[in-house]
Amino acid sequence: MKKLLYTLLLGLPLLTGCSDFLDRYPGDALSPSSFWKTEADAKLALTGCYSQFTSGWDIMYWDCASDNAYNFHIHEGYQVLGNSSMSQSDPGAGMFGFLDIRACNEYLENEGTIAFASETTRARYSAEVRCIRAFLYFQKSFNYGDFPFFTSNFKTPEEAKVACTPQSEIYAFVEKELKESIPSLPETAEAGRFNKGAAQALLMRFYLYTGDHAKALATAKSIEGYSMPALSFEESFLMANQYNSEMILTTESVENNYSFDFTPFLPNSSSGWSSVVPTQSLVDAYETADGLTIQEAQAAGTYDPTNPYVNRDPRLRATIIYPGQNFNGGIFDSVDPKSPDFTASANNASKTGYNFKKFYSNLEQFPQNFWNTAKNFPVFRYAEVLLTIAECKVELNQIDNELYDAVDQVRTRAGMPKVDRVKYATQAKLRELVRRERRVEFAYEGLRRYDVIRWGIGEIAMKGELRTCPRGEVLDEVADPATGDHKVNLNKASDLIEVRKFQNGKSELLPIPQSSLDKNENLTQNPGYDL
After folding, report:
1. At what angle do helices 213-222 and 382-395 cross, to 10 degrees?
2. What is the pTM of this model?
3. Which is it for strands 164-165 and 326-327: parallel, antiparallel or unpaired?
4. Among 38, 141, 186, 494, which is most buried by a count of CB atoms within 10 Å?
5. Strands 277-278 and 69-70, bridge-based pairing
6. At 309, is the secondary structure helix, strand, or coil?
7. Is 285 exposed, middle or buried (0-12, 13-18, 19+ CB in 10 A)?
8. Buried-state track 183-217, b at ≥16 Cβ within 10 A, e below 16
């Protein structure tokens, strides 16, 4: 498929003529009078808007703001989000910025000066930008609540000092923008660009996250043209298969120009930084291969907590590197003090004893090396559509074959058994199942914090001790001849990493940075963060 190249002028920030004074553009920016002349200018500006949209780094690092992952390197800004210690003086890695919104406004304010060869193309480009802007405003407002809102760029510093607009008004805008944009989008598009299905998927997610299950269900069922691929879960995320039938919208990377670097995610023994690492809580969420939770399996005598990684949901091995796993030509060992992957051996060693591996399962797939890859990342994929159908029907108490079939499609692709319809026959049990499915299916895809917040489970999921994997040893005995993984004997206690503190009524929202408050006296800090 043709890739959308994000490298042209590195995006629209170099093409602006005025500033909103909250995030300033370079002083040598081009003025509107020297740009906005041809359809080629419009396409270049559209590319600039996409460069502000989202990235693989945004997607993967955001799991550190949840109970799925831990970020040791505090300067990266995600550790404080994970343990809820963020403050207005140390807000962490947030999204309280405006260059992205400004780029979209700039396009929509100026594209009318261009004579397009086709009005259909003009309408399509505008719809794409409106979808990008809607995505950005929804993301920002979900995480900050009320948020500075503007659809026309400011010309003076005083104009830029706007107060926050209520979240409800921003949400109404997002819904309107998406509904109006969908008819102008094509059924298919270049990889990395909004088409009709991608805009519908965004609208579906918007309805789900805002609790309108009836509309989310109807929107999910309107999405057509996608399916679960005839690939294993692990295969679905390899570079060779990254344009498979499940992918609705992906980020795009280009070797040498706009490449993706996996260094922050790899283990220390593979020359990585272990910046984003899984938690024990996430590991424990994966069922055993027969569909039991590890608690149920232990009660039945089929789960050994000292050798916990055998006979598990295949998504565990496809997503996470754990002690004893055969990875990158060796046996991963984070429990041996002499190993470079032992938690205390180096700053670049995983502090939980686990590393993520989803998206880079086989390092040999990267011909230019893992720091220069053309790897794309899913923004929306069909599994989210299916699990949205399931969740909405659970919440609407519509327990029927459509619900079970949606979950079964996700589970069977992963190599898991279909849902036990006797065991999971009530709304409460199905809610438990679907929430667990979302967690293990979308781990490392940046959705978990949104789920935790909207489900109101922050004090359950994100409060308490964060610990390493249990200590012990990796044995010489092979546990699985098919994979080459070794047995482990993790018979010693884990170590404490940190104590996380989530406070209902405060931690759901991120703090407005002090630097932004200093610039604009009309901003009001979110509850609980005032100095």
Report:
1. 140
2. 0.94
3. unpaired
4. 141
5. antiparallel
6. coil
7. buried
8. ebbeeebebbbbbbbbbbbbbbbbbbbbeebebbb
In tens, the pLDDT along 372-390 reads: 999 999 999 999 999 999 9
Q: What is the pLDDT of residue 362?
A: 86
Could you give the 3-state DSSP secondary structure of residue 312? strand
Find, among 365, 340, 331, the residue nearest to 267 by Cα. 340
Q: Are 369 and 235 in contact (CB under 8 A)?
A: no
Q: How far apart are CA 514 and CA 529, in angstroms?
A: 10
- What secondary structure, in 3-state letters, does 368-397 show? CCCCCECCCCEEEEHHHHHHHHHHHHHHCC
- Answer whether 470's CB lies under 8 Å from 493's CB: yes
pLDDT tens figures, 456-511: 999 999 999 999 999 999 999 999 999 999 999 999 999 999 999 999 999 999 99
Q: Which amino acid is at 296?
A: E
Q: Which residue has the tokens 């170099």?
A: 14
Question: What is each CA distance from 89 to 162, 503, 517, in whole angstroms?
Answer: 21, 18, 10
pLDDT value at 1 more than 50: no
Residue with tokens 């004074």: 21
The secondary structure element, H or E, covering residue 213 is: helix 213-222
Query: Nearest Cα to 204, choosing from 144, 149, 148, 131?
Result: 131
Q: What is the pLDDT of residues 54-104, one digit of tens each?
A: 999 999 999 999 999 999 999 999 999 999 999 999 999 989 999 999 999
Contact assessment for residue 309 and residue 325, using Cβ atoms and an 8 Å cutoff: yes
Encoding tokens for residue 23? Answer: 């995030």
What is the helix (H) or strand (E) element at residue 165, kind and residue range? strand 164-165
Give me 389's structure tokens: 């159908």
Name beta bridge partners: 488: 474
**What is the token pair recorded at 440?**
């293990």
Choose among 370, 444, 468, 351: nearest CA to 61: 444
Identify the three-state secondary structure at position 506.
Answer: coil
Are the C-beta atoms of residues 152 and 105 closer than 8 Å to each other? Answer: yes
The DSSP call for residue 86 is: -
pLDDT tens-digit profile of 245-260?
A: 999 999 999 999 899 9
Give residue 153's pLDDT: 95
With CA atoms as reference, report the closest residue to 6 among 189, 141, 192: 192
| Residue type at 331 in one-letter notation | I
Over 395-411, what HEC string results? HCCCCCHHHHHHHHHHH
